[in-house]
Amino acid sequence: MLNGKKILIGISAGIAAYKIPYLIRLLKKSNAEVQIIASPNSLNFVTPLTLSVLSENPVIVEPFNKETGKWNSHIELANWADLILIAPATANTLAKMANGIADNLLIATYLSARTKVFIAPTMDLDMYHHPSTIANIAKLKSYGHEIIEPNVGELASGLQGEGRMREPEEIFAVIENFLKKKAH
Question: pTM for this one?
Fold first, then answer.
């Protein structure tokens, strides 16, 4: 089902970014094309080299390449994708998505999307249950986006609870199931 499908993964600055290389491998093994857009701060958690080697595409962070001047069109990126996945999606990124705050290439691309958007939240327990986060997730669901609800488990803070981003295999299964349904 993923053969030739174009998957755009937007990575925001959460510790769960370390799981994305595993997801990329699963997608590539299924012959999907993968393009990564990373928020600038996400690169504190995962390296562009790892992401680009696994995806076989350069990681895009800025609206234009400062060395060459080449523009990375958020519109072209959004139109290229058969599916957009924002993972990990931090509380900050969820708020920007819900309220149209396009202060980086990832959010500008998201706002230009015409395809299905999947969102895999990740954050600490209290942040996940904060009224503003709950409202932002509800707003994103009202836009027709699919929320890949986080797991309950050990969080980066050492606390136990809801907020742990789903494992790569689980996210892959959600994407695969969606594309199977869409094909029929």
Answer: 0.95
Contacts of 23 (CB under 8 A, 6+ apart): 9, 87, 168, 171, 172
Walk me through the domains of the chain, giving residue ranges and CATH numbers. 6-183 (3.40.50.1950)
Sheet with strand 33-38: strands edge to edge = 33-38, 6-11, 83-89, 116-121, 146-147
What Å distances lie between residue 153 and 149, 166, 184, CA to CA?
13, 10, 35
Q: Please, what is the end-to-end C-alpha distance for the chain in angstroms?
A: 11
Rounded to 10°, the helix 131-142/91-99 angle is 50
Q: What is the H or E stretch that residue 68 is in? A: none
Q: How many CA atoms lie within 13 A of 123 on its CB side?
A: 19
At residue 23, what is the residue type?
L
* pLDDT at site 55: 98
- Helix (H/G/I), strand (E/B), else coil: 97: helix
Tell me the pLDDT tens digit for each residue of 76-130. Answer: 999 999 999 999 999 999 999 999 999 999 999 999 999 999 999 999 999 999 9
Contact 88, 12 (CB under 8 A): yes
Q: Give kind and range of the element (H or E) at residue 15.
A: none
